[in-house]
Amino acid sequence: MTSLPLLSMLVVLPALGAVALSWVRQPARARQVSVGVVALTLALAGLAIVLFRSGAPGPQLVDTWGQVPGLGILLQLGVDGASVVALSLTALLTLCLVAAGPRQALDRHTLAVLLLTESATLGFFCAQDLALLSAFWVATLIPAGVLVSRSARARPESRTLLTFRTYMLAGTLPLLGVTVLLGVLGWRSGVEAPFELAGLMARGVPGSWQTVVFGLLLLAACVRMAVVPFHSWLPVLMGRGPFGLSLLLVNVHAGLFLLVRVVIPLLPEAWAAGETMLGAVGLFCGLYGAVLALAQVDLRRTVGFLLVSQSGLMLAGLATMNTQSVAGVLLQSVAAGVALTGLKLVVEALGARTGTTDMTRLGGLVRKAPRMATFFFLLSFATVGFPGTLSFVGEDLLLHGVLEAHPLVALPLLLTTAICAITLFRAFQKTFLGGVSQEQKSLLDTVEDLLPRERVAALGLFALVFVGGLLPGPLLRVREHEVGKMVGQVASVRGTPAPAHAGSH
């Protein structure tokens, strides 16, 4: 343990950076400040992983700042095996977005919103109190909502604003309702800290409230994960919304963390009873997102529906609830987060150069932008689990876990992965290969290849997925205790022995 308030510094630093941007007027200077802040944030997140002790029970690196008078909200931050990796993933994705995103898309306001969203997301992963966790959940959405409102004033983008507001309210109000309900129950029982997560898990939820609480928390998580039928905001925001927001809201997998950190430990009986339903929803979402991604002609919307499909696969794996499937889901959340962020950066670089991401208006770009084509190809196959990548290990564990529990269910998962691979190969073929019409030739002749900062970001993200595929053991070990504990809770409810730990690949 350390006396340094590391997690508090980690959460506050991006917010301070966003405030500092209000005094910076030059766009280039604003970007430099933002890159410096998010790079330092990533360094602090890396230090948290170094100091974290795998297998130790309870939260680690705890910072406690007392309680909110009269409410009993515990101002405490800490990390476990599931959240400590999420901190680095959030910081890494934000750094790549800020450092390698298109300059015209990263004005001072957008940079400030990205930093505020990062700060709130990091706080959400660290919160050890349900009320504090809910406050950070809301805080991730407020800056995004303001920026979406600002960018949606033009008529074609008005749908973005309406869709985003509607779904974020639908995903926030249930969590706030559950927080108030559990707080009232705690106050009535005389608990000093009614929202503390450890205390909530120990007390449990009264039987008469379990179904309601489970349904509300599940709704909040599914909306944030963009699980079908609560998904339509994501492709719209990905296609028309401000740069980077959709990735920070979904690709860091806060909705998945809500299930892992709160829903399953708090309501293992309800989770065990709903596993079949959740597995079916996850399978349908994965296949539906894959099919719709295949039907798109816009690269941004294609990536959006691929995110939807990945969320479905993760929900299906989590619903299976054995050690292999859960370890695979958590590994896949990192792999998909890294690979899809890299893919999105390449797509945005393409859009910034050509003014479009419509595949029907592109073609033959491999001759003008070979590096862009190469990274699109590599990151595409890293996304769908090409052998040798971290996605391959995650999907392998997930599929083995599903096969062990429900052999027939693995077939739709394999079909989903195959469709996603076809989608990305088709996108690569239409965008970078093939001939170019005379109408398109004048547009594409001026296309510039990836700049050094864009190449560094794309190469770094692919290298992480590749090295992670070769050495997945550390990521598996750091989460092994949390996976075993979670699976054991649900197994004890089922009355079955907890499965053995998944070995490293």
UniProtKB/TrEMBL annotation:
Subcellular location as annotated: Endomembrane system; Membrane
Pfam family, one: Proton_antipo_M
Membrane topology: Multi-pass membrane protein
EC number(s) given by UniProt: 1.6.5.-
Family stated for the protein in its record: Belongs to the complex I subunit 4 family.
Originating organism: Hyalangium rubrum
Primary subcellular site in the record, as a coarse category: membrane
Source domain of life: Bacteria
Membrane-spanning parts: 33-52, 73-100, 120-146, 167-187, 207-230, 242-264, 276-295, 302-321, 327-351, 372-393, 405-425, 456-476
Residue ranges of every copy of the NADH:quinone oxidoreductase/Mrp antiporter transmembrane domain listed in the record: 127-417
InterPro entries documented for this protein: NADH_Q_OxRdtase_chainM/4 (IPR010227), NADH_UbQ_OxRdtase (IPR003918), ND/Mrp_TM (IPR001750)
Signal peptide extent: none
NCBIfam families: NDH_I_M
Swiss-Prot/TrEMBL keywords: Membrane, Oxidoreductase, Transmembrane, Transmembrane helix
The UniProt record lists the keyword Transmembrane helix: yes
GO MF annotation list: oxidoreductase activity
UniProt protein name: NADH-quinone oxidoreductase subunit M
